[in-house]
Amino acid sequence: MLESFKAVLEKEREAEKIILEAKEQAEKIKKNAQEKAEAVYRETYQETIAEARRKSIEIKEQAKKDAESEAQIFIKRAEKLKKKILVSAEQKFSEAVNSILHEILS
Amino acid sequence: MESLGHRIIDRILKDAREEAETIVKDAQKSAETIIEKQRQSARHSAEKEAHSLLKRAENDADIIRGKVATDIKRRAGWIVLSEKNRLITNVLNEVKKRLVNLKKSEGYVPVLEKLIVDAGAVLGGGMLEVVLNENDSTLVKLNKLEKKISDRSSVDTQLKFSEQKTKAVGVIVKTIDDRIFVDNTFEAILSRRERELRLKITRILFSNVG
Question: For residue B8, what are the contacts with CB-CB under 8 A and spacing of at least 6?
Fold first, then answer.
């Protein structure tokens, strides 16, 4: 009978040890988590800002690209007008030369 | 009795192991929660700055759009303007060429005389010197021009050829004291009137285009 109680007491001590070890492990896990949390905060913050910066660059580049594409119409119009101007100038070249000569000499 | 003792012992260890497992699992869950909360907190805190960055980027994008449009419109305007300028310059170059060639034609002497009279009248007559190029001095008779200048300026006028010569085509007339002169060489006339002539050429060449 005494042997049995002794055995129970021994196992209870073993059980306490198991729980104590578990508690220590739990504390360690929580402590690690606290430490890791700071790094996670920093990294997540930086990633979010970096992502916003990437998007900012994209927005600006896209705006430039779109604006350049939209404004090409003005270049096309100018090139068309340039051709008209050349035709008109060729037709009226002699008239202009004679008129200026007349202006200077008369 | 022995069997009951074994059961109690087994139970004590089983319960302890289960409790230990729960303690560790809870700790792991708690750790995950802490990390996730920090992650969310970081995102939340960064969102304000990120939002501000994106808003600034949108504003910058508006400015870029405006600047690009202005630059391209300016470039388009420049394409037209530089072509007009080139064509106007072509006309002026042709005019210069013809003026130089005029020297070889019959019409040159009357033109030269007119330029002398105009310059003399601008100077208000009086004692004047006429600067010509080497060849032209023999072409002009000054005495008949003196009267014309006198008539226009109402001042008695005497003209004489200057010893000074010009290489330009046309004439320079100056007062005898060298203080005032009128440069009526073709080059000077064109230069003096370039702005006005360019406008006139513009009207002739491009009146029917935008």
Answer: A8
